[in-house]
Design brief:
Layout lengths: L16 E2 L8 H8 L2 H6 L5 H14 L4 H25 L3 H6 L4 H34 L3 H7 L3 H11 L1 H26 L3 H7 L5 H4 L1 H12 L4 H10 L3 E2 L5 H36 L10 H7 L3 H4 L5 H34 L5 H23 L3 H18 L1 H11 L2 H4 L6 H24 L1
Helix pairs in contact: 3-12, 3-14, 4-13, 4-14, 4-20, 6-7, 6-17, 6-18, 6-19, 8-17, 8-18, 9-14, 9-17, 12-22, 13-17, 15-17, 17-18, 20-22
């Protein structure tokens, strides 16, 4: 069994935020007190991989794949709810809960698998940030990559603020990105009737190979291991009476509200990206395959007509820069959770961040020097990062469903049979879709 010290996930954050008792304040005040972890998790649903698939889906099929985005976020809500339940009820994150159930060798294997997944997540942030710096300032990609090492200082600065302020900063960043894309889409005058039709699933998606493959990419990029580990730990950041069943039930209730509200925000941002691609670039002669396609297209009057504007393209690149930088916070926390949970090794977060970033940069720089530092090469890395995440996914979701269905661990909060069955079925479907997507690349 793990010792008591290990059972406290992310010691710097654990139980650091006070919340009202069950007998105090209104629903809104309680929601605000519990709100925050969902924002940190939602950032993971807006990474460069999601950007590419959403923009490409819109440029090729206009609004038809909005239904796939909606389905993906509903599945994400289901899985994040299980992660919340594990953290709130068992007071363990997923890595800790798995570690006490498996032999030492298996722990090491799972740690390696998930470390690779964390680095793959970090890679998408590096790629997004470096490309955004190139689009905004013309900075060579190799310099942009090396500059991402400095985000260690950003993580240090944010952590000095405390988790509550970090949550506020991330939420503000999400709102800024949402406003940017909202402005872009509003100026593009999309067809609202077509958007509503796109939210209705079309059987043609399953029968047309290209639509199916892109749909698999959207679904496969949605559920990522680091979000599950992160949420199971952040759910423990609120301080309340764990021995009071009413307080535990309330913590579960508001943590779910927090998660679902922010995942809806993530869905809206990804939907705005797809709508932007579908409104401005559908039937324009070529599909969007790169961030530069969008950046240049937003400035090209031959493509988007009178809507062409340097401001629109600059806002797009700025939003990419924000999400790339903010994702470094969540990937750092997720990596620390995995290391602490499986190995019981504690490092200061800045050391963890520095190690992760250096290890992430090695394959990027090696590939860059061999193949060349081009945006196409870097965006191809995003695809391979998604493959790594797909491989790690079943090692994350299957144990989580099993653990939250365990009577000894969860007590009266264990999953009912229909939740357990749904969890296993959804996990299997996601895994099969990811395998299909990998073989289609």
């Amino acid at each position: 069994m793990m010792n008591e010290q290990k059972k406290k996930s992310l010691d710097e954050i654990n139980e650091s935020v006070d919340v009202p008792s069950v007998y105090e304040t209104s629903f809104v005040q309680k929601f605000l007190a519990y709100s925050g972890p969902g924002a940190l998790v939602a950032v993971g649903y807006m990474d460069p991989g999601n950007w590419l698939t959403s923009l490409s889906g819109g440029s090729q099929y206009r609004y038809k794949l909005l239904s796939v985005l909606l389905l993906s976020i509903l599945v994400a809500m289901f899985m994040q709810t299980l992660a919340i339940k594990l953290g709130v009820v068992a007071r363990q994150d997923l890595a800790q809960a798995i570690a006490v159930k498996v032999p030492k060798l298996v722990r090491y294997v799972l740690w390696i698998i998930n470390e690779i997944a964390m680095m793959a997540t970090d890679m998408t942030g590096v790629v997004g940030t470096s490309i955004a710096l190139r689009l905004l300032f013309g900075l060579p990609l190799v310099y942009g990559i090396l500059l991402t090492i400095l985000d260690v200082l950003m993580v240090l600065l944010f952590l000095r603020f405390g988790i509550r302020r970090i949550e506020f900063i991330v939420l503000t960043a999400i709102m800024i990105v949402g406003v940017i894309f909202g402005i872009d889409v509003f100026r593009a005058h999309p067809a609202f009737a077509g958007i509503l039709n796109g939210l209705i699933p079309s059987p043609q998606i399953l029968t047309t190979h290209r639509e199916l493959i892109l749909s698999l990419g959207i679904i496969g990029a949605t559920i990522m291991p680091h979000n599950i580990y992160l949420h199971s730990s952040l759910a423990q950041s609120r301080r309340y009476d764990h021995n009071n069943p009413k307080q535990v039930n309330e913590a579960l209730r508001f943590a779910k509200w927090d998660s679902n509200v922010h995942l809806v925000a993530a869905f809206l941002i990804n939907a705005l990206l797809l709508i932007l691609g579908g409104t401005l670039f559908f039937n324009k002669g070529n599909q969007l395959t790169a961030f530069r396609d969008v950046y240049e297209g937003l400035k090209n009057s031959a493509i988007v007509g009178s809507l062409a504007s340097p401001l629109m393209s600059t806002l797009f690149a700025f939003a990419l820069l924000i999400t790339g930088m903010i994702s470094s916070i969540t990937s750092t926390l997720s990596g620390q959770i995995v290391m602490e949970g499986y190995l019981n090794i504690r490092l200061p977060l800045w050391e963890r961040r520095l190690i992760t970033r250096f290890v992430t940069l090695i394959p990027i720089l090696v590939i860059g020097f061999i193949v060349g530092f081009s945006e196409q090469t870097f965006e191809a890395m995003i695809v391979f990062a998604q493959i790594a995440l797909s491989i790690a996914l079943p090692f994350t979701l299957y144990p989580m469903v099993a653990l939250t269905s365990n009577r000894n661990l969860m007590g009266s909060h264990r999953n009912p049979a229909w939740i357990t069955i749904s969890g296993y079925v959804l996990t299997t479907i996601i895994m099969v879709l990811n395998v299909e997507f990998m073989f289609s690349i």
